[in-house]
Amino acid sequence: MDALCRQLRSPVLDIALPARGEDPRVVVVGDIHGQLLDVLHIFRVHGTPSSSVVYLFNGDIADRGRYAVEIWLLLAAFKLRNPDSVHILRGNHENEQMNRRPFRMGGGFEEECLEKYGRRVREAFRRLFTLLPLFAVVAEEAFVVHGGLFRTPNVCLERLRSLPPRTWRRSYPDPKLHAQWTEDEQIVFDAQWADPHDGLGWMPSKRGGPATIFGPDVTHRFLEKAGLSLCIRSHRPPETLRGYEIKHEGRLMTVFSASDYGGVVGNRGAVAVF
């Protein structure tokens, strides 16, 4: 997995619809958070990863649930068998700052790794997470990112493609130092932490710290510049509890795939299929 990820020269993946198969498709999976049964259910419904059924996991596989390691190993096995059948973007929980938190504080991945496999495996995952891309363009139609869009004005797809590795091949920048962030660091943070709102522009998020929320004008402007029709993001369970939610005049979709999140939310899980 490390070797495959190191081949990436950009944090943006371009994923085409499969050209072969009875029912070729790309399946976008939102937050899973260690809920292995949801992954197995998705594979039962849509098929296991293959040359005709391609999966894009939109971050937050790690933390909170107790079987994140097993999910990562399962996806790694499929990717090693067929590298183009599974793609994984980094969410805010594929970062050392979150993984170090215990389960009771919304983390748990480090705890899970150490209990099951020890420090060598934990370090291997830490390295892998810094290599994961942040964005994808699916079928030349949809932009996929874990959190959301950007406070930095006039960000375009070309700017994202040209982000230097030293900026994106790392854990997200330290929130305590946000006053000193470069614009590139703001972009990397917002990609993993931003949420939508219904007003215009961007503003501070109720999550606190340097997290932001972005409005429909931000979504429309970015998509128009990129020549794309839809932005897909994940990061939080939709208020509808249906596993997905459409906002920003039909141009922003939230997809969340962990059903009955944490055993307490009572939500459905959903995926997006191209």
Automatic annotation (TrEMBL):
Key words of the record: Hydrolase, Manganese, Membrane, Metal-binding, Transmembrane, Transmembrane helix
Main EC class the enzyme belongs to: hydrolase
Keyword set includes Transport: no
Documented EC number(s): 3.1.3.16
Required cofactor(s): Mn(2+)
Domain Serine/threonine specific protein phosphatases: 89-94
Cited SMART domains: PP2Ac (SM00156)
The reaction(s) this protein catalyses: O-phospho-L-threonyl-[protein] + H2O = L-threonyl-[protein] + phosphate
Superkingdom, natural source: Eukaryota
Pfam family, one: Metallophos
Single Gene Ontology MF annotation: protein serine/threonine phosphatase activity
Transmembrane segments: 128-150
Family membership noted in the UniProt record: Belongs to the PPP phosphatase family.
Protein name listed in UniProt: Serine/threonine-protein phosphatase
Upper lineage: Eukaryota, Sar, Alveolata, Dinophyceae, Peridiniales
